[in-house]
Design a protein that fits this description.
The chain is an alpha/beta fold and 235 residues long. The protein has a single domain, classed as Alpha-Beta Barrel (TIM Barrel). Helix 6 links the parallel strand 5 and strand 6. Helix 1 crosses helix 2. The protein is globular. The chain starts with a helix and ends in a 9-residue tail after the last strand.
Length: 235
């Protein structure tokens, strides 16, 4: 695919996703300005990623630390206005390098990882935005804190100086369709509402992907993580 064709295709796909977000916000009685699209680039290389940024999506998510490192250093992306977010599982031995290039880590799923990321952020002289990943569906194969663990995690955060917990992240159950997804998203919002305070509002709810972003927005998502819908037709 030629560069001009790639740019046109990615632009059309992005516009279609933005229109879905706008329609879902209308249905929820919300402004589309309340929802940030994070473009998930794990499916594509640097050239397609650059096309997405040129099309207007600068918040990008990578699921694997190594891919984030590689793309952050890719010549094709040099000078582009990108805010990288790690959205997948992070091992503690990869925390330092990841913290060095990420604008946020959206997948803090254990106290040991929280401590490692806090220490790494301090070493880099930064205060890093994070999201706490919650296994809201209870799926055994998913990472994340259980809802019952959240109070202890928030207590741990009170002693951490180099991370800022901005909210929660979750995925819906793999099975069950839109109705189950919407219940999962409602559960995450209600969990946030129970534990949010004036000092720590946990305002961000990252939930919803290509197949269920509408249900997530209806239940209060402020970030949707979209990959496959952006890359339809991209080889």
């Amino acid at each position: 695919m030629q560069p001009g064709e790639l740019d046109s295709l990615v632009q059309r796909n992005l516009q279609a996703v933005l229109e879905r977000i706008a329609r879902a916000c209308d249905a929820a009685g919300r402004s589309s300005d309340e929802v940030t699209l994070v473009g998930v680039t794990k499916y594509v290389g640097a050239a397609a990623t650059a096309a997405l940024v040129r099309a207007g999506c600068s918040d990008l998510g990578e699921a694997r630390p190594q891919q984030l490192w590689e793309k952050a250093a890719a010549p094709e992306l040099a000078g582009l206005p990108i805010a990288w977010r790690l959205i997948g599982h992070l091992q503690r031995n990869k925390a330092d390098r990841t913290v060095g290039v990420a604008a946020a880590i959206d997948s803090i799923d254990s106290l040991r990882l929280l401590r490692a990321v806090d220490g790494a952020a301090g070493g880099h002289g930064k205060r890093l935005p994070i999201l706490l990943e919650v296994n809201i569906s209870g799926d055994a194969e998913k990472h994340g804190f259980s809802p019952d663990e959240l109070p202890a995690v928030l207590e741990e955060l009170s002693g951490r100086e180099h991370v800022e917990a901005q909210g929660l992240m979750a995925m819906a159950a793999r099975e069950g369709g839109p109705d189950v997804a919407r219940r999962n998203f409602a559960d995450l919002r209600e969990l946030r509402d129970r534990h949010a305070t004036g000092a720590r509002p946990l305002a961000t709810l990252s939930m919803g992907m290509s197949g269920d972003l509408e249900e997530a927005i209806l239940e209060g998502a402020t970030i949707v993580r979209v990959g496959s819908a952006l890359w339809d037709g991209v080889a």
